[in-house]
Specification:
Elements (H helix, E strand, L loop, with lengths): L10 H6 L5 H23 L16
């Protein structure tokens, strides 16, 4: 019998499983905080620019 193949678990999959231990939740929060810091630092060094956010849908 062949071994069953499984997909590696993603961060989203772990999040959707529900509450975890406090330490795990703290690590996740710290990781998200670090992503924010890196993102804002990257934007800081880009210089003047324009950013457009939205999800408008256009008929083609």
């Amino acid at each position: 019998m062949r071994p069953r193949l499984t997909r590696p678990e993603t961060a989203e999959g772990r999040f959707l499983r529900g509450p975890q231990s406090r330490l795990t939740e703290l690590r996740r929060a710290i990781g998200i905080f670090i992503e924010f810091v890196r993102g804002f630092r990257a934007c800081h060094f880009v210089g003047p620019c324009v950013t457009v956010f939205g999800s408008a849908r256009f008929d083609e």
